[in-house]
Amino acid sequence: MKRTLYWVNKDLRINDNAALNLASKSDRLLCVYVVDKQSFEANNFQSKPLGDIRWQFLQGCLEDFNESLSKLGQAMHIVYGDTLSTLMRLCESYQITDVITTKLPGTYENRLITQLNERLPELTIDQVDQFTLFTKKSLPFELDELPISYSKFRKKMAEVIIPEPVSTVQSLPSMFDTLPAPTRFKPEWLPTVSAIKAKQGFEFEGGEQQGLKHLRQYFSSNSPAEYKQVRNNLDGWKNSSKLSPWLNSGCISVRQVMNNLAEFEQQHGKNSSTECLYLELLWREYYQWVHYKVGAKTYQFKGLAKHRPLTTFYPERFNKWCLGNTPYSLVNAFMHELRQTGYLSNRGRQIVASCLVNELSVDWRYGAAWFEEQLIDYDAAVNWGNWQYIAGVGVDPRGGRHFNIEKQTTLYDPNGDYQAQWIDLSQQSTQANQALDSVDAADWPVLQ
Ligand SMILES: Cc1cc2nc3c(=O)[nH]c(=O)nc-3n(C[C@H](O)[C@H](O)[C@H](O)COP(=O)(O)OP(=O)(O)OC[C@H]3O[C@@H](n4cnc5c(N)ncnc54)[C@H](O)[C@@H]3O)c2cc1C
Q1: Do residues 382 and 394 make contact, with C-beta atoms less than 8 angstroms apart?
Q2: Residues paired with residue 78 on neighbouring β-strands, in sequence order
Q3: Its function (predicted)?
Q4: H or E segment at 418?
């Protein structure tokens, strides 16, 4: 008898979910999502892995997935606590024979699987390869031979056929007779987030239904055909696809997005914009495989480089950057938008990351961790990979990027409209004249 625990993670969807399809072949099924206490505690870089805005979004995703499961006679059991001990306890209490989960590149998730395997060796653990567009098996090279530059990766992948989404399950096995009680119990360490509605924020509502609705709307508009011209603009709902929050929580899959893009091209023709969107989605793919390949180096100061960067940790500068109090008003506006909405355009992310590393000389990992807490669309491989790229310790053959803030302001916000949305411009000249570091009587920076 196959008694399965489906450990739900970044696959909060019914459609195109090969892990759920596999779970549907069990005799009994327990669907579990673990909300780990650690996610809400500050890490080594002073930030929490899960901030309020993404937590709010995630709750919408969990509710929506639970509704979909209940239509198939199942339910989602949300358990609050330490992930490993929770999974072990449930496996033992329910005499679980099989654990099914979606394979993720993150070192944390992979360590958990290894530990579960070591502690309960009789368990069969299936990690379904579906977070990426391609599976490891379908890569035209061994993972060790993953090209070290994106352009080489792109050329190699041009030959590989993009897979179709898998069929949707029509029914699921029955639940266990006695079910875990803690589903309704919410521990005191859980943040209570009241609905966050930022002023100029976008409407990101968590859940597969909302994700699919947005996917359909985007590809039934003309936006994909204009993507290249507007993707670097600093704001606007239609300037980029805005698919990332749903994509990274697994409400929609990258296969679904790519198939929608291919259909759009069939109907309206391919152009440089649709090609550009494809290439961005392929960047996402590349970072996932880089993470699989380099593992923990993703989070190390030296990253993939031979030498450590020349930056360090200046608490005061870092705090000013987080709060949008730097001498650079464009950067301040971005940091306010990020903190209030959880979203920032790609150009905004590049500029603030470059500022932290190059202007403020701060260790890039603090910035990456701040993004991890703040972003509604946080993805480990993409976030840390992009930060490494800008800090010059990643997959960039040019060795880092330095954005000229003045030039970027002239190019993208010449009249200050974007800045005026997020900051009080009248206070900015005072801020610009303030020293970056507080100094003591002898003019040494005061470390706080
Ligand atoms: C420092 C930094 C940190 C970032 N952190 C994240 C993150 O945690 N999560 C995340 O999804 N994206 C991250 N990005 C990439 C990019 O900024 C976002 O994917 C994008 O802004 C999301 O909006 P969108 O869905 O409208 O993107 P679109 O422009 O519509 O792109 C479509 C999809 O392509 C992928 N994509 C786009 N740009 C990139 C890129 N530069 N690298 C890899 N994939 C890309 C994303 O999956 C995106 O959803 C980061 C970029 C930088 C510079």
Answers
A1: no
A2: 33
A3: May have a photoreceptor function.
A4: helix 417-422
How far from the centroid of its chain's Cα atoms is residue 336's Cα? 19
Buried b / exposed e over 409-430, threshold 16 CB at 10 Å, is beebbeeeebbeebbeeeebee
Which tokens hold the place of 319?
A: 């705090």
Question: What is the enclosing helix (H) or strand (E) of 5?
Answer: strand 3-7
Structure tokens at 274: 């649709």
Q: Tell me if 98 is assigned to a ligand binding site.
A: no
Exposed, middle or buried: residue 197 (CB in 10 Å: 0-12, 13-18, 19+)? exposed
What is the CATH architecture assignment of 315-433?
Orthogonal Bundle (1.10)
Per-residue pLDDT of the chain (448 residues; tens, 9 = 90+): 999 999 999 999 999 999 999 999 999 999 999 999 999 999 989 999 999 999 999 999 999 999 999 999 999 999 999 999 999 999 999 999 999 999 999 888 899 999 999 999 999 999 999 999 999 999 999 999 999 899 999 999 998 999 999 999 999 999 888 776 655 568 889 988 766 665 556 789 999 999 999 999 999 999 999 999 999 999 999 999 999 999 999 999 999 999 999 999 999 999 999 999 999 999 999 999 999 999 999 999 999 998 899 989 999 999 999 999 999 999 999 999 999 999 999 999 999 999 999 999 999 999 999 999 999 999 999 999 999 999 999 997 777 889 999 999 999 999 999 999 999 877 776 666 677 787 665 655 555 4
- Compute, in angstroms, the gap from residue 349 CA to the centroid of ligand 1: 9
Distance CA 270, CA 72 (A): 39
Residue with tokens 């009248």: 426
Domain 208-295 has CATH 1.25.40.80: yes
Question: Looking at domain 3-131, which of 3.40.50.1970, 2.30.110.10, 3.40.50.620, 3.30.200.20 is its CATH number?
Answer: 3.40.50.620
The alpha carbon of 369 and the centre of ligand 1 are apart by a number of angstroms equal to 16
Residue ranges covered by each domain of the chain: 3-131, 208-295, 315-433
Which residues contact ligand 1 via a Cβ below 6 A?
A: 231, 240-244, 247-248, 280-281, 283-284, 287, 345-346, 349-350, 353, 371, 375, 377-379, 382-383, 386-387, 390
DSSP code per residue over 294-327: HGGGGGSTTTTSSS--S-B--HHHHHHHHHT-SS
